[in-house]
């Protein structure tokens, strides 16, 4: 059985997972007044450009220099802003639709190497045992150090059924690990469901894509074909996020109509928005895809599962359901990405810039940025602890502060890290299990919570690793 992977945030890479996009702007700046360029700094840029053109040991293409300069300028803002060249822009558009080619890993760059954020379920990388936190050292015979993230991703992509040898460095392993992977067309299955026992349903949302809300409605209908449900588990673990309208749609399936789901605050008018549980906010031009949901779905007792790989759109859903007391949150603290990105195509339309334009807030005004969602019931993955993520939002360089925090980012990160691995366990001793399968302690405890049975919550660090049995009562709906 494959172990539930602890994932982090998708910063860039094979799958665009954490993009929360308010809109795709039709123009980068044609209708907006452009600030005048600073003369001295522009002259410095021109001087550096000319020096490279005249003196660098090898000739460099003008387009590459300009693109690299743009990339550096945007990347210096925060971890989630990025310049998307023609190929990266096309790849992002494809990945949002939920189907793309590659190996099935979400990656970022760290210390000149490509770090695996998370392997995607049921993909070549996942099946081969690639783990979150692995550092990719070589792709075939080409060292990764010195490549940009986009260049490394291009090497990993290729025609389906072609092979690539990936050499990785793994914490705790003295020698590099070589893994031969066969490329596939990656089809991310956004929603899965099953009736786990009579009267109890399980829904898993892996990513928030264009069709997620409509897919969710179909799965809910399937769950109710056997009769009314007495309880429902919504699994958002290792879900790195996706489209904001999909997050609103998933929330709307369980909340009263017109409920405020999330709001955002930023400098520009388009960044200051409120999202409600109405078809105009989640229908994507298809009308009300939730109109025929079984009536019981609005009141069925619910538990939402989260972990350190639950980010962005996942946190929007968990935060909204928690604020309305519509569901209890169970698991370990989520990733903590509370910012909004928007795609602004460059005038040519062949490339784009992805910019952080706002921070989002739960209905009760909570910011998740660099903090995450704290579960109502803190429960480890297994009786042997949790495989905590190697990093969260608060650990990322140049991350945005939580509005409620006045200290510097580095201090926030240190504070987050102080409690981060409490009772956690990153060793190979963590048991392997399938989500909602045998050995999935969080799912088992969610079922206990729904039934009013004792819940094995994590004890404080001073009390040791063994979970305590917290009393619970059946979840009551508002």
UniProtKB/TrEMBL annotation:
User: Which PROSITE patterns does this entry report, sorted A to Z?
Assistant: PDZ
Residues covered by region (Disordered): 405-478
Q: What cellular-component terms does GO give this entry?
A: outer membrane-bounded periplasmic space
Decide whether keyword Cell membrane is in the record: no
Every copy of the PDZ domain together lies at 93-171
Q: Name one GO biological process term.
A: proteolysis
Q: Any idea which UniProt keywords this protein has? A: Hydrolase, Protease, Serine protease
UniProt-recorded Gene Ontology molecular function terms = endopeptidase activity; serine-type peptidase activity
Where does the record place Low complexity bias? 412-426
**NCBIfam families assigned to the protein according to its UniProt record, in alphabetical order:** prc
The UniProt family comment states: Belongs to the peptidase S41A family.
Q: What is this protein called?
A: Peptidase S41
